[in-house]
Amino acid sequence: MSALKLDTGGVLVQCASCGKTNRLRYGTLDYATRCGSCRGALRPPAEPVEVSDAATFDALITTSSLPVVVDFWAPWCGPCRMMAPELDKVAKGAVSEWLIVKVNTDAVPELGERFQIRSIPTLAIFHGGREIHRAAGARSAGDIRSLVAMNLDRRPAA
Asked: Which domains does the chain have, with CATH numbers?
């Protein structure tokens, strides 16, 4: 899984130049950010990031400046494991457009229950603190991109 971590304040990333850990605040994920130590450019997440608890998820969803694509999954689920490399491809191509996170429904059952996840994998798209779409079943990278793009194009203007 990813070396990136989430906390209630943002995504924790290592600077490629100096190795220091920096926090990319959820509310400014769509802005260019520099390392607090060496001032080197920090890259936004280019891979799915695992959500460790409900408080972190709530902070992310309510404050993220980017739409968030959530993969509800479980380690024992074959279709979930098949879709994981497809999500990796999408995350690499969606840098600074969307943030892709993974919620292991076995490790964080509270979220699976709250969002009434009855089938995995389930992809949910959140924007502006609200769920705007969800779809169950394994998908290819192209299908995931199309699903997200189509649903973000239809969202009401702020």
From this structure: 45-153 (3.40.30.10)
